[in-house]
Structures are given as structure tokens and as C-alpha cells.
Amino acid sequence: MDEGRSIAPPEPRCVAFVLIGDMVALDLIGPLEAFTVARAHPSMGGRDPYLTRILSESGGPVATRSGLPIATEPVGALDGQVIDTLIVVGCGGGRLPAGSDAFLEWLRTRASSMRRLCSACTGAFALAEAGLADGKTITTHWRWLDELAQIRPAAKVKRGPIYIKDGNLWTSAGVTAGIDLALALIEEDLGRPVAMDVARTLVVYLNRPGNQEQFSTAFEAQTRADGSIADLITWISSNLHEELSVDALACKASMSPRTLARRFVQETGRTPAKFVEQLRLEAAKRALEDGKLPLKGIARLVGLGDEQSLRRAMLRSSAITPSEYRARFRLL
User: Fold this and answer.
1) CB 3.0–4.6 Å: which of 23, 95, 309, 325 could bond 305 by disulfide?
2) Whole-prediction pTM
3) What distances in angstroms separate CA 189 from CA 42, 67, 195, 260, one per listed residue?
């Protein structure tokens, strides 16, 4: 769709959410509210771009972890009707509960007729168990990535992104990432200006890039590291402008460079150099989103030296220049 275009389709597109029990309420409510705001956008000219439906296998109230019951229709209520976009909202425990064979068969039967097939959080398990993610790159909440990869080796489970689009299959991480997914779908349908207005109304960013990490590199490393390595990670995060070579870090940690390198990889899964570069890139992206500093100032702030080094690092890691990143992801 052309940039700036914001035209409702001739007929509302059916966006159906299908729920699995013991779900996190925000996995539904966040994306649902995004579509609801888009439906009332002034540029629609009085035409409704979406028809939203909330389904479950058997219908009736579906329990959420917060205790809020969600009223649903049975999936059979849409038999014979076109579903444009299906968003499967997963259960809290990852894998589907026993006795889900009929639901998985319904997914397989209906999937080929849908324009888009999506999941929020652990809804990716349903798509994987139905065989609909085979050969596709998918993601889910970070707590369940390893289990998802184990149950369906034919799917390419990617660690980190908040959402992924692979063909007509869209998968997202947990909780607030469902809003990012919905904004991306709205932007694809109705154009960036509408999606930006929806984001403003919801007081969220438009839009975090799909390849943005579910949580920071420092946070991930701190959950895995202990003692002196964890302390070093905390220091690195606050001193990105400093000299952070292996020798300098080893001196800070009172270790030999060889011992530091070995322990760092063991405890974080990354070399010190890769870890530092990733933290610097994350800090640079936050500064670019903020939009206040010039590129050379950002490069110095995060320890990348100059504008050209910043450009090379971003192209290498994300295939986007700093200027392009700022133009697309600057905060509203």
C-alpha cells in the first residue's frame, strides 16, 4: 500500500481472534483495542474497515489468568464466512491442552482461505502443532522459545524479535508485542498515517520494528550470569562511552583476558566484543528513536566513535542506516 494511503475496503475485513484457555487477557485486549480504534478513524469516511469476532473452540466464557472471563463464539459460528485475518491467542502454558485435535483440524481446514494467519504470544504453538508453520520463521514469548522449537523442528523458531512476518504468517511475542503486531497489520491495510493515529490514541510507539529484541541484551545476560560477570555487565551498560576492549574489561573484573573471555561466553552465550557491540547498537537505536542528538553525537555517546562507524555497525546488524532508522522509528 502507498505511503499515506488510508482508505477503507469496500466491505469490512473479518479479523477473528481465537482464544485458548488460561490466557493472558492483554494478549487479546491490546490488539483488539488497536483494531477498534482503527475502525473509528475519521479517514474511513463512515465505512467500517474491520469486523472483529472473538472465538474459542466451543464458545462461551474463556478464563484468563487475571480472572476476567472473555465471552466467545464457537469457531463454527464462522463456518461459510470469510475470515480475512485470524489471530490465535495462546494459553499460559505454551502447548495446547490435551483434546485439541478438533481445533487443530479446524485450523488446518480454514487456514488456506485466509489472507493472513497470525498468533499472539503462545498462539504460535497452535500454528506449529497444526503444521502451519513448517518451513516458516516464527517467534513467541521468550519463555517458550525452546519448547516451541522442540515440538516442531520443521518450523524455524527465531529468538528475539517482537514479531515476524513470513509470507502470510505473522507471529508475535507476548503481551504488549500483540499491540505491535496489530499496528503492523493496520499499517499494511490502511496506511501508516492511520496506524500512527491508532498508536497515538493508545499512547504507544509506532511502531517498534519487528526485529527489535523482546528484552535488552543486558537484561538477558544478567538473567544468565552470576557474581563478577553480572557485576561487569551492569558496569558496561552504564559506561558504553568507555574503552571496552577485552583487556580493559579483564582489568575491571580483576581477571586475565583469557579467563574473562572464557567465563563471559559460558555465562552469557556471547563474546565480550559481540556483547559490547550489541549494547552499543541498542543504545544508539534508543537515541535515534528519541530524535534529539545528531548522528555524530550518538556515535560518541555510545562508544562507536564516529558517524561512519555507527553507520557500518547498523548496516551489519540490521541492514538499515541510522538515518533510515530514525525516519521510520522516531518516537511520536
Assistant:
1) 309
2) 0.70
3) 15, 34, 9, 50
265: Cβ–Cβ under 8 A, 6 or more apart, which residues? 271
CA distance 139 to 141: 7
Q: Are 124 and 148 contacting, i.e. CB atoms less than 8 angstroms apart?
A: yes
Report CA-CA distances (Å) from 304 to 48, 95, 293, 308, 327.
48, 43, 14, 9, 21
Three-class SS of residue 125?
helix
Domains and CATH numbers, the chain: 13-202 (3.40.50.880), 217-329 (1.10.10.60)
Give how far Cα 168 sits from Cα of 85, 108, 154, 309, Å: 10, 14, 17, 36
Instruction: Report the alpha-carbon angle 308-309-310, nearest 5.
Output: 90
Cα–Cα distance between 240 and 279 in angstroms, integer? 8
Categorise residue 113: left if φ over 0, alpha if ψ from -120 to 50, beta otherwise: alpha
CA–CA–CA angle 119, 9, 180 (5° rounding): 30
What is the grid cell recorded at 320? 538499515
E runs forming strands in 3-162: 13-19, 50-56, 60-62, 70-74, 85-89, 116-120, 137-138, 156-157
- For residue range 146-191, list pLDDT tens digits in order: 999 999 999 999 987 889 999 999 999 877 889 999 999 999 999 8
